[in-house]
Structure formats: C-alpha cells, structure tokens
Amino acid sequence: MPTQSTTPTSLTPPTLDRPEAITDRLGRPLRDLRISVTDRCNFRCRYCMPAELFGEKYAFLPRDEILSFEEIERLVGLFVGFGVEKIRITGGEPLLRHDVTSLIERLVDVGSASSASDSPSGAVPRRPLDIAMTTNGSLLPRFAKSLAEAGLSRITVSLDSLDPETFHRTNGERFDVARVLEGIAAAEDAGFDQLKINCVVQHGVNDDGLIELAEHFRGTGHTLRFIEFMDVGTRNEWQMDEVVEGAEIIERIGAVLPVEPVRPGYAGEVAKRWRYADGSGEIGVITSVSSPFCGDCSRARLTTEGALVTCLFADGGTDLRGPMRAGADDDALREIIASTWAGRQDRYSEERQGLLQIEGAGEQKRERVEMYQIGG
Fold first, then answer.
1. What is the pLDDT of residue 125?
2. Around Cβ 263, how many Cβ atoms within 10 Å?
3. What confidence score (pLDDT) does residue 316 get?
4. How many CB atoms lie within 10 A of CB 175?
C-alpha cells in the first residue's frame, strides 16, 4: 500500500506508566489502535474481498513483509505511551495468523507489566489494555478457549445473515452460516458472554434479514450492531443506493421489537445504542454514511505490513516497518508516530458527498486502502 514519510517533531519520550496524550489538528486524542495481523481471509465477502478478485492465485503479502509479533509488541508499547487504551486485533481473518494467541499474551503483558525501578515497593502497576478481536467466527470452535486463556478481553463476530443462501451470496461459498454460529457458541463456552455481532447491511442483498437477526440475538447478552455499507477501499463497487441508513434500520426493527435510545457509554463510541423496551438486550447502528462521527474519532490503524493509517478511508499511510528494520530507536519511532497523528486532519465521512461529486464530474477516483489491509 502507499506510504509516506513524516518529518519528526521534538517530543519528550512518554512511558507506559506516564503516558503523554497527543492530539491531531482537530483536537482528537489517540486512544484506540487497530492492528491487522494478516491480509489473508478464508471468507470472500463481497464488500471486502470479492471472490472474482481474490482467487486462488491472488498474491498476498510474503511472510517477510508482514510485521513480526516482536515488532507489533514493540510498537504497541510506544502507542500505549501516548495514551492508547484499547487494542483490536483484525485482519483479514486474524485467526489465520499462526500462533496469534501468543501475540495476545504479549500484548496483555505490555499493559499489565510492572516497573520495579519506579517504586520503593518494587512494582508500579501499568494501565491494563482492553484487547479485543474481530473475526468471522469460523475458527472460533478451535481457538476460543485458547484466546480466553491468553487474556483476550472481548470478541466481535461478523455475521451478515442467518439465511444460508444469503450468507453464501454475501460471504462466499467456503463455509456455511452454521459454522459461524458454532463459533459463537464456542466463544460463549469459553467465557465470552457479551459478544458483539456485526452485520454490514446492503440494500437488496441482506436487508430483508434484519428482524431475524434481531430476534435471534435478543436475550442472549450479545449486542447486535448494524453497519451501514461503506465505501472502504476501491474494489467493492460501492454505490450510495445500496446503503440502508441507520434511521431506517431502527425504524424497521422498532416496528416489530420496540426500542428506546441509550446514551453513549464513552466519548468516541462509534455505535448509536438502542435497547429493547422489554429489557431483553441492546442493538447498535454504525452510521458512517448517514450520520458521520469523524469529530470523535480516536482510532489509528496499523496495517499488516507496518504502515500507520489515520483513517478508515485513507489512501495511504506512514511507514513504521522500514525505519524500525533500519535500526530506528524508540525515540525516533515515537517522533514518527507523534508527527503523523499531530498532522492528522482526516474527516472523510463528513466530506464524502463533496468528494463523490468531484469524482463524478470526471476526476480520477482516489485509490483507498482496502478493508482487508486495515481490518475495518
């Protein structure tokens, strides 16, 4: 993917025990880091990795271009020094990355390790990290227990339809929806009793199954979240008329299962929350298209090959792997991270309509980083 260089700025090195908050040009802090650990996936979702483009001969990244676990651990330590509190492991499908549970263990240690030098008693607790994973669920029957044992905090499962035919049309022919449901059950058995279930809603594709999904997960303790179909990347042939807006989704569900709004749980929460009037659970809608939330976005993304991306809709990122492998010390890497975030002014979703009009007027379409490279 395209990368760019960044001129370092002067920065007093923060530490894990004394994080130094940084903000971008719009005053947004850096609190969340999403890490893509592989660009490979065993699904072929039409909005991310369509089968006609990602066939058996597709050239994914070679091993030596992918960040090692040691490199990821090192970078996470630097990001935590800037105040990052939440880590999300993504892909591709992250459970395809060999021994990914050992990475979870490493990152848990980053957040929970103690510094003997800063305390007379010999230990100062560091802020624990919230470490989550987004997965298609197909490999959870095999890995859920070991993920729990490794210290993973939370799991989000992608599930676009309960209907077998629609599922295959949306996610590919390799697996049945029953496999995902088995994965959810395995996660429950492993102690993950409050999953998030993400459904990307496309008009005329799977929007006829919203009520079925809501009824299936109501009362389970899991939160079903409906995501407006977004123009991430340039390969999913996104069209505005395929978007089912969040307000319509809530209206449809509320007509059958009455809901009421819930206040956000924290600053920058991406999903608008609703609870069933009978107290049987919650749903959420993520409205990047119809009601953008750029003003509160505190998320950075680390691609599989080590580029720092500051927006889901970015056309490139800042290379961290290159300097790291060339021998850059932690101070140099901190300065690159700080400079990149300090220069951030992304708010694509708020500017979408104007940019699309420019492209529609004959301007060359901007190539954006693909979903499978940054994990959404």
1. 45
2. 6
3. 85
4. 19
CA atoms within 13 A on the CB side of 356: 14
Sole residue written with tokens 């939440």: 86
In this prediction, residue 363 carries a pLDDT of 47
- Count how many Cα atoms sit within 13 Å of the Cα of residue 198 in the half-sphere of its side chain: 18
Domains along the chain? 3-374 (3.20.20.70)
Output b/e per residue, 106-117; b: 16+ Cβ within 10 A. Answer: bbbebbeeeeee
Q: Output the pLDDT for position 115.
A: 33
For 118, the token pair is 């800063």
Alpha carbon distances (Å) from 264 to 32, 218, 269, 270, 296 = 17, 20, 6, 9, 12
Please report the pLDDT score of residue 240 as a whole number. 82
What sections of the chain are H helices per DSSP? 69-81, 100-112, 140-150, 164-171, 177-189, 210-217, 246-256, 321-325, 330-342, 348-360, 371-374
Degrees, nearest 5: CA angle 7-268-28: 25
In this structure, are residues 132 and 156 in contact, taking their beta carbons and an 8 Å threshold?
Answer: yes
**Residues sharing a CB contact under 8 Å with residue 75, sequence separation 6 or more, in sequence order:** 67, 302, 306, 320, 324, 333
Model pLDDT, residue 356: 56
Residue 366 near residue 359 (C-beta atoms within 8 A): yes
The upper half-sphere exposure of residue 317, i.e. CA atoms within 13 Å in the direction of its Cβ, equals 25
Query: How confident is the chain (376 residues) per 10-residue block, as mean pLDDT?
Result: 48 54 93 97 90 90 97 97 96 97 96 45 58 98 98 98 96 94 99 98 96 98 95 72 95 98 84 96 93 87 96 88 98 98 85 57 55 65
The span from the CA of 144 to the CA of 147, in Å, is 5
- Other beta carbons within 10 angstroms of residue 164's beta carbon come to 11
Model pLDDT, residue 344: 93
CA–CA gap between residue 249 and residue 226 (Å, rounded): 8
- Alpha-carbon distance 290 to 245, whole Å? 6
Q: Which residues lie below 8 Å from residue 278, measured CB to CB, with a gap of 6+?
A: 258
